[in-house]
Amino acid sequence: MSVKQLQPIGDFPPTGLFRRLFAAGYDLLLLLAALMVATLIYLSVHIWISGEAAAHAEAEQGAYVGDPILTLVVVLITIGFYSWFWTKKGQSLGMQAWRIRLQQPDGRSISGRQALVRLAVAQLSWLCGGLGFLWQLWDRESRTWHDIASDTRLVTLPKGTFKD
């Protein structure tokens, strides 16, 4: 997908830590709902193929814990969820609710590569106890590790930006 100039155009302030985290929490709830539906579909197909008794026996033995196919489905849905929202218009649903936009420093939408780098480094930020997010408190431009690695910025849009 090619990058495009995002609307509205302007020099918007960087997004603060709490607003970032609240939007991430909102998105996490939406992502978990999508993952629950995907898991339900996956298990339903598995039960349909192997039969209810066999599937129940496998579940009792813990066969679905760490299932490589289900793990792949979860990873692909997670990547797809964020990549699609971020590259399409720079906002996931949680970001829209909190008036946050993800963009390149010049205000254009991000590329698919930037979305993948951002998502991967954001996971590392969480795995380091959130240090990658806290980094914004010391960075002169209020950037997190994933902002720096992907050369992207989160900006806060003004109130009433999308009202007609």
What does this structure look like?
The chain has helices at residues 17-50, 52-60, 68-89, 93-97, 112-127, 131-134, 145-150, and strands at residues 100-103, 153-156. The longest helix is centred in the N-terminal third of the chain and has 34 residues, at 17-50. The chain is mainly alpha-helical and 164 residues long. It is elongated, with a radius of gyration of 19 Å.
Q: What's the helix and strand layout?
A:
Layout: H1 17-50, H2 52-60, H3 68-89, H4 93-97, E1 100-103, H5 112-127, H6 131-134, H7 145-150, E2 153-156
Antiparallel strand pairs: 1-2
Helix pairs in contact: 1-2, 1-3, 3-5
Q: In summary, what is this structure?
A:
The protein is mainly alpha-helical and 164 residues long. It has helices spanning 17-50, 52-60, 68-89, 93-97, 112-127, 131-134, 145-150, and strands spanning 100-103, 153-156.
H-E string: HHHHEHHHE
β-strand number: 2
- Assembly context of the chains: single chain
Fraction in beta strands:
under 5%
* Fraction in helix: 55-70%
Radius of gyration: 19 Å
Largest sheet, strands/sense/barrel: 2 strands, antiparallel
Count of discrete alpha- or pi-helical segments spanning 4 or more residues: 7
Distance between the termini: 28 Å
Coarse structural class:
mainly alpha
- Kindly report the spatial arrangement of strands forming the biggest sheet: 1-2
Unreliably modeled segments? none
Mean pLDDT: 90
Shape: elongated
Search tags:
mainly alpha, two-stranded antiparallel ribbon, 7 helices, 164 residues
